[in-house]
User: Which sequence fits this backbone?
């Protein structure tokens, strides 16, 4: 993977091609969005293993179940909104209950489909998929990570939902040495005052926010948590023990996403942390430029800095 | 078996018995001793509630013991769920949520084509189930990918939970609908094994997917259940009703082991 790629979807498309070369059982399904998701890279290289299902996502997901039951490794690529919200029952019945080896790729997740508004945006996909037994949920945020995660999930048997934002100028936080393994948590920055736990594209934003905070003498550790199911409770507990104050950051509803998972873990482990959940506060999406949407939802680097400064050294309730 | 546990779907099971028997005992290339054999013909019971007939057929065909089935149907500790799941030997895919079977079958049929294997995929669909939009997504997909190895059999018993299909949301004219979706359409009496076998044995090898619309009677074989939507799902049988059912079917119900 050349270092210069900053686009997550370009990294995904290139990764698909490399996977297709190595594994002849990989077959890609699309619902008329191959160009925006970059599944078209695979179509160009392997037209015989590219299935255009048209604008019929429900059929596509069930077809993938049938293909998997006959030995293929289907990679279903779609906008997350139409994959998760529209096809939940098909994912439940045609894939997860029979535990079939289908990889579901939710592109344009969160508000990264910035121009399209609520119908296309997903602040609910992690919460929805988390209720399904058998499936793993991966939320990536760095082009290198996209490539490594895709190659890893194809090797592991079973259903996976991987969330890949449309972020064409990402802030990389992966090094060449970093490897992807389901459940592994990446320690992006060391710090002492508190820990930030983030997922997906928010880790790049947090990394920049933490650099700014450091200039103001605030030292935060940053942990990237790509695997939201199964949760690596052991590793999270170690972080919860090391840091009294925890920030969770996600481009997803704070109900049912990373924040909820961390709150849940802390309560079960009785670690007594103060946890501040930064994410979408139970709202529908909105269209606007990507830059404006980060600000609109309070998820820009400046917003994160502000939330940290207003909460770190006082015990006032965070609102 | 249904009467033992007081749960299950009688009417829609009785309407597809001959179809299942013809498939499993004559038409399909299968080996009950090797339920995962890669070259086997596939079967999807898309009208997933018809498990009583489906499981009974699998048991008689030798996938598992009849006594095991009768003793543990819908038992929480057994794998005989009321809607079929893949943990039961011979069940190729779990079903129960209507409308997904033709799509899954299309995936299996497509896999056969891509793997250059000769097996066929059969999908049993209810006529009421054709109200599901996904059926028609799958119909378009099957024609587009020229899945001549995909055979959908419609158990057209004209009834669904709320009454006559034509009064709920009419699916007619079914033959014209499938035909306009570019499928080869055939029809047969779903309770006449000779007709069924003739039809299933003479399907063309062409690239069009096939649909066989079978006219059936819900609750077939038990007079007071026939054409009566009240027997879609379980209704308690009185002693007298059980006796009539046994007489008319010419069987003696096995008690739970």
Assistant:
């Amino acid at each position: 993977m050349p270092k210069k790629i900053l686009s997550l979807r370009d990294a995904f498309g290139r990764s698909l091609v490399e996977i297709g070369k190595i594994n002849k059982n990989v077959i890609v399904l699309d619902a008329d969005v191959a160009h925006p998701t970059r599944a078209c890279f695979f179509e160009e290289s392997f037209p015989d293993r590219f299935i255009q299902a048209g604008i019929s996502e429900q059929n596509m997901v069930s077809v993938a179940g049938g293909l998997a039951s006959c030995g293929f490794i289907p990679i279903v690529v779609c906008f997350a909104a139409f994959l998760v919200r529209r096809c939940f029952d098909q994912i439940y019945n045609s894939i997860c209950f029979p535990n079939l080896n289908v990889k579901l790729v939710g592109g344009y997740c969160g508000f990264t489909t910035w121009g399209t508004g609520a119908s296309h945006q997903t602040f609910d996909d992690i919460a929805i998929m988390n209720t399904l037994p058998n499936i793993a949920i991966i939320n990536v945020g760095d082009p290198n990570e996209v490539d490594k995660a895709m190659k890893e999930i194809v090797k592991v048997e079973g259903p996976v939902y991987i969330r890949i934002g449309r972020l064409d100028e990402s802030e990389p936080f992966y090094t060449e040495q970093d490897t992807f393994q389901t459940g592994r948590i990446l320690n992006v920055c060391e710090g002492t005052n508190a820990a930030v736990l983030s997922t997906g594209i928010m880790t790049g934003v947090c990394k920049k926010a933490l650099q700014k905070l450091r200039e103001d003498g605030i030292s935060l550790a940053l942990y990237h948590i790509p695997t939201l199911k199964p949760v690596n409770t052991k590793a999270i507990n170690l972080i919860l023990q090391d840091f009294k104050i925890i920030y969770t950051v996600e481009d997803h509803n704070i109900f049912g996403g990373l924040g909820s998972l961390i709150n849940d873990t802390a309560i079960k482990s009785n670690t007594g942390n103060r946890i501040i959940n930064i994410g979408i506060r139970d709202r529908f999406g909105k269209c606007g430029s990507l830059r404006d949407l980060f600000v609109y939802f309070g998820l820009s680097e400046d917003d994160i800095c502000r939330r940290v400064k207003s909460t770190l050294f006082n015990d006032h309730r965070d609102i | 078996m249904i009467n033992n546990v007081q749960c299950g779907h009688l009417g829609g099971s009785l309407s597809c018995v001959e179809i299942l028997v013809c498939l499993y005992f004559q038409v399909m290339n299968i080996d009950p001793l090797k339920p995962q054999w890669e070259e086997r013909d596939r079967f999807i019971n898309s009208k997933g509630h018809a498990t009583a007939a489906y499981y009974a057929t699998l048991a008689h065909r030798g996938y598992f013991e009849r006594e095991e089935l009768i003793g543990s149907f819908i038992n929480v500790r057994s794998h005989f769920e009321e809607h079929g799941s893949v943990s039961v030997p011979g069940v190729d895919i779990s079903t129960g949520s209507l409308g997904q079977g033709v799509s899954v079958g299309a995936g299996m049929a497509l896999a056969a084509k891509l793997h250059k294997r000769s097996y066929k995929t059969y999908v049993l669909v209810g006529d009421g189930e054709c109200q599901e939009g996904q059926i028609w997504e799958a119909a378009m997909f099957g024609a587009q990918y020229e899945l001549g190895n995909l055979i959908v059999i419609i158990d057209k018993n004209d009834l669904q939970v709320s009454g006559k299909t034509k009064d709920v949301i009419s699916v007619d004219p079914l033959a014209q609908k499938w035909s306009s979706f570019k499928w080869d359409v055939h029809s047969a009496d779903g309770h006449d094994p000779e007709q069924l076998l003739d039809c299933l044995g003479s399907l063309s090898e062409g690239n069009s997917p096939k649909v066989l619309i079978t006219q059936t009677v819900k609750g077939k074989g038990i007079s007071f259940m026939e054409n009566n939507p009240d027997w879609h799902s379980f209704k308690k049988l009185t002693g007298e009703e059980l006796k009539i059912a046994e007489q008319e079917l010419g069987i003696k119900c096995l008690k739970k082991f």
